[in-house]
């Protein structure tokens, strides 16, 4: 009798073991779900079956390509950008372990010291997958225009791409990253500091802000110029917040508009800013062809010596550089005796 019952007992034990495994797997499938700008307060613990790994909390987040499961508290972040995404991450007290840089862009002195402490994983237009893999990231953050790398990046670590094709709103980016990384309180502190600087600027300059108009022309080469709507680039957004007056042409401008030397007078103002992105344009600015055109000398800003060449496209990109940019604006609007 004893020998006949043994196989039955063994089968029963196997059956119970299978049930236990199914229960564990079912528990593992529970995850936190987060839409962009929304967080589900319920957090589930994902406990891998392997006893060699520590339990990892995860959540599902929405991004430019849909949804992806990421760690709730990522510790090893690689960011495929050294400006628009790095600045807000640093402001949130997040220190990435790797970044992709722009080798031909003018670099920001504000972030220079911080950049030296982070591993470089190639150019942001063609990041090195090998270098990224060697860093063993648990989260990768990039732009939607880097989507061609997404399948390979996702094979390395969960990857989130942010839509910066249509606009680069530094406040929106900050808030989204704060939601992503559970840093909402820190984001509120950062924006409060920014708002305080803006209010101080408006109070100190007062009525003088209403007496000058500005225009911003973006220079991409010796013959390619464009203007952007004042609400879709960070530095123009900051100017709007500060009460600086753009010329009327900006009221009907939506998105991006290429311009020529012949239409440049339509964008004349009391103060004209020429934004350059590339190092080569910075070095060769005086020899650029449009400066030699007779129409250039007819501009009001040129006559009054109020043309300023700046590198805001790559150096004013997030809350850290935004605060420093507000300090820079004083020199253009404070009346000198």
Structural commentary:
The protein is an alpha/beta fold. Among the domains are: 26-72, no CATH class; 207-333, Nitrogenase molybdenum iron protein domain (Rossmann fold, 3-Layer(aba) Sandwich). Helix content is 36%, strand content 20%. The chain is built from twelve helices and 16 strands. It has a six-stranded mixed β-sheet with strand order 8-7-6-5-9-10. The chain is globular.
Uncertain segments: 1-52
CATH topology of one domain: Rossmann fold
Q: Mind telling me which CATH architecture of one domain this is?
A: 3-Layer(aba) Sandwich
Give the radius of gyration.
26 Å
DSSP strand content? 15-25%
> Order of strands across the biggest sheet?
8-7-6-5-9-10
Work out the helicity level: 25-40%
Order of helices and strands: HEEEEEHEHEEHEHEHHEEHEEEHHEHH
Name a few traits of the molecule.
globular; 337 residues; disordered N terminus; single chain; six-stranded mixed sheet; 36% helix; 12 helices; Rossmann fold; 20% strand; alpha/beta
Give the topology.
Layout: H1 2-28, E1 32-34, E2 45-46, E3 56-63, E4 66-71, E5 77-79, H2 86-91, E6 98-101, H3 109-115, E7 119-123, E8 126-127, H4 129-134, E9 139-143, H5 150-156, E10 159-162, H6 170-180, H7 184-205, E11 213-219, E12 225-228, H8 234-241, E13 245-246, E14 256-259, E15 271-276, H9 279-283, H10 300-303, E16 307-310, H11 312-315, H12 319-333
Parallel strand pairs: 1-3, 5-6, 5-9, 6-7, 9-10, 11-13, 11-15, 15-16
Antiparallel strand pairs: 2-3, 3-4, 7-8, 11-12, 12-14
């Amino acid at each position: 009798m004893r020998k006949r019952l043994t196989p039955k007992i063994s089968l029963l034990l196997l059956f119970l073991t299978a049930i236990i495994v199914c229960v564990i797997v079912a528990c593992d499938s529970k995850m936190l779900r987060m839409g962009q700008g929304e967080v589900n307060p319920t957090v589930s613990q994902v406990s891998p079956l392997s006893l060699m790994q520590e339990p990892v909390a995860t959540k599902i987040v929405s991004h430019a390509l849909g949804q992806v499961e990421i760690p709730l508290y990522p510790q090893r972040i690689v960011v495929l950008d050294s400006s628009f995404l790095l600045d807000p991450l640093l402001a949130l007290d997040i220190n990435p372990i790797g970044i992709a840089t722009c080798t031909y862009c003018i670099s920001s002195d504000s972030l220079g010291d911080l950049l030296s402490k982070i591993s470089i994983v190639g150019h942001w237009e063609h990041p090195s997958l090998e270098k990224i893999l060697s860093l063993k990231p648990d989260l990768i953050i990039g732009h939607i225009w880097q989507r061609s790398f997404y399948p390979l990046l996702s094979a390395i670590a969960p990857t989130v791409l942010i839509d910066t094709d249509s606009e680069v709103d530094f406040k929106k980016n900050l808030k989204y990253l704060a939601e992503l990384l559970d840093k909402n309180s820190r984001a509120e502190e950062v924006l409060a500091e920014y708002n305080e600087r803006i209010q101080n600027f408006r109070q100190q300059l007062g009525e003088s802000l209403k007496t000058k108009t500005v225009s911003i022309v973006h220079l991409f080469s010796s013959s390619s110029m464009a203007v952007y709507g004042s609400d879709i680039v960070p530095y123009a957004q900051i100017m709007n917040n500060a009460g600086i007056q753009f010329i009327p042409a900006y009221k009907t401008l939506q998105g991006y508009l290429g311009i020529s030397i012949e239409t440049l007078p339509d964008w004349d103002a009391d103060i004209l800013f020429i934004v350059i992105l590339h190092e080569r344009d910075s070095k060769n600015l005086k020899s650029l062809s449009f400066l030699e055109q007779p129409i250039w000398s007819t501009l009001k800003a040129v006559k009054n010596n109020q043309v300023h060449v700046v590198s805001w496209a790559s150096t004013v990109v997030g809350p850290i550089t935004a605060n420093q940019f507000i300090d820079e604006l004083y020199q253009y609007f404070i009346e000198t005796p």
